[in-house]
Design goal:
By secondary structure, this protein is an all-alpha fold. 60% of the residues lie in helices and 0% in strands. Helix 5 crosses helix 8 (175-185) and helix 14 packs across helix 18 (375-388). The protein binds magnesium ion.
Length: 390
């Protein structure tokens, strides 16, 4: 509302000839000079006219939300499978928590929230069913055919596999969104310059989100107890803050309060440290923010060390917990069985997939098909596959 408006009669002043260039003005007002500004976009592979009221990166965010692969995240494992309960995170709710943390941090640092949201919502769409167990199984299946990696698969989905437009394959995202995802898939390869600050924020938010929610989920599922978590300095600090803030909490309230404090400690440190580094470097634009000996977004050394210890505990006691490993073995077996059956009998592939064999090869096409499945769909397909041909 503008000054002079009343609740009953707000003044609507949108111009009828509005173009996305108005968003350029908005960005100039709201974003820091080191943020990525839409005016600097390298555009899309296939040229498209500007949208009348959405900025380019907003369109990318919307295109990602409308992907079949995005919807399927609701029924894909993050760490714990659907059979284990209904409290813990799915791949979709993990993604939404990442987007929420990243957007909050991006707003404080005056970064481009549209780019952040697009990157965050896209970051896990390439995950196959059954979490990292599924990824390892498919990678092994393709060991002689280029391997499988969920970050690369996300690019494959938006550049090739999702068919939403008659004129081109994929959804024709802006180069910055594609590049941000490419950076994730080439993390261990040498590169010149750091990724855009928006990419760095999403990466930090991903890691903060999974540490906090995996601890929460593991305790709720009874795979880890609070005393074990309190062995780490970071959880102990979060627990102490929760106890100081509230006088009487039952176990569940305490766990949830401590998770909130944990998120607060991590995000607070991320913002403080990144703010200091940005102030010191004072990059004049988004490109200058990619130079320098160290990335400008990150945790303090002390907090990073504490976070690493928490991750080690989660790795040792949760990700390798017998219950989690048992689910993992079942999932790996199911995917490998389906891979072998489909490769030996390609006529079992649905028609829309079978036509891709010529372009991408049989093995890659089978894995594309398996990777698209939700956990539930994969178990049904596995049941059908072993029933027809035990
Ligand atoms: Mg993630």
């Amino acid at each position: 509302m503008t000054r002079g408006d009343t609740d009953e009669h707000p003044t609507v002043t949108a111009r009828s000839d509005a173009t996305w260039w108005e968003f350029d003005d908005r960005e100039a007002l709201l974003l820091a000079e080191y943020a990525f500004h839409s005016r600097d976009t390298a555009g899309r592979v296939h040229g498209e006219p500007p949208h009348p009221y959405r900025a380019p990166l907003q369109r990318d965010r919307d295109r990602i939300v409308h992907l079949s692969a995005f919807r399927r995240l609701a029924h894909k494992t993050q760490v714990f499978t659907g059979e284990m309960g209904d409290y813990h995170r799915s791949r979709l709710t993990h993604t939404l928590e990442v987007a929420s943390i990243a957007r909050t941090a991006g707003r404080v640092l005056r970064l481009n929230e549209d780019l952040i949201e697009a990157l965050a919502l896209m970051h896990d769409i390439g995950h196959p069913p059954f979490g990292h167990a599924g990824e390892d199984a498919l990678d092994e299946c393709l060991k002689d055919h280029g391997g499988f990696n969920h970050n690369q698969q996300a690019l494959r989905l938006v550049e090739l596999l999702e068919r939403r437009y008659p004129n081109f394959p994929g959804v024709n995202l802006s180069q910055e969104v594609l590049e941000g995802q490419r950076v994730r898939s080439e993390k261990n390869q040498p590169r010149t310059g750091w990724p855009l600050l928006e990419v760095q924020i999403v990466d930090a938010a991903d890691s903060i989100a999974y540490d906090a929610h995996d601890a929460d989920d593991a305790v709720q599922l009874g795979l880890l107890d609070l005393d074990e978590l309190a062995e780490t300095t970071l959880w102990a600090a979060a627990a102490e803050r929760a106890q100081r803030r509230y006088s009487a909490l039952d176990d569940e309230q305490f766990r949830q309060a401590a998770v909130r404090e944990l998120l607060g400690l991590l995000v607070g440190d991320l913002l403080k440290t990144s703010r200091q580094r940005l102030d010191e470097a004072s990059p004049s634009d988004s490109r200058a923010a990619q130079d320098g000996p160290t990335p400008l977004v990150g945790l303090s050394d002390e907090m990073q060390e504490q976070k690493d210890s928490l991750e080690q505990l989660l790795f040792d006691r949760v990700y390798r917990h017998p219950t989690v490993l048992e689910q993992r073995h079942l999932a790996v077996d199911a995917l490998k069985t389906m891979y072998q059956r489909l490769c030996s009998q390609p006529s079992r592939l649905p028609g829309a997939w079978a036509v891709r064999i010529q372009a991408y090869g049989l093995e890659r096409t089978v894995v594309d098909y398996l990777a698209c499945m939700t956990d539930r769909y994969a178990w049904d397909a596995h049941r059908r596959c072993t029933r027809d041909d035990p």
